[in-house]
Amino acid sequence: MLTRSKLVTNLTLGLFAVILSCTNAAANPSWMPTTGTTSQPVGHYEFCQQYPTECQPNAPAATPELTAEVWEQMVEVNSSVNAAILPRTDEEMFGVPELWSYPTTEGDCEDYALLKQYMLQRAGVPRSALLITVLRQRNGAGHAVLTVRTDQGDFVLDNLDERILAWNETDYLYLKRQSERDAGKWVAIADDRDILVGSIR
């Protein structure tokens, strides 16, 4: 008889096999196209003032191979953080429009992303592959997720979705993300997909 954890593991590995086979079938793995340095979000700048060691140049590292073990770590971290943190805005928590921080019991989108980044780095994924990413939802609202860069493309860990999807399988308009080379710098994303966001296509 399968225990719940064994069942989750089996389902996770089965899903990984399907995703990997679909990704390998494509002519090219899907990575977000970037165009160069852009402005750092104010909230991240202030976060870097508080945690300067988290905003340093990254050590050179190869793009991680998307193995079953790495996929399972991504699923586990995404699921556990989403379940553990109660969604609340910075206005509700701190009385300010924006404050990036590591959450303990509650937080907003960038707080989820920061904690997932922290946990996956501690699990051995290179920091250069764990990139906080800013985007717009279909309703025009700003949002942040964690992008995990792998040899099979860029995958999104999102507090609004339990699924881990390739970036171009989501209906977000991606704007910018952390640089692979330097965690304190940001690069623009050239998302030219035909995505309708608010009243702007």
From TrEMBL:
Signal peptide range in chain numbering: 1-26
PROSITE patterns: PROKAR_LIPOPROTEIN
Origin: domain of life: Bacteria
Protein source organism: Jiella pacifica
Keyword rRNA-binding among UniProt keywords: no
Signal keyword on record: yes
Keywords: Signal
Name assigned to this protein: Transglutaminase
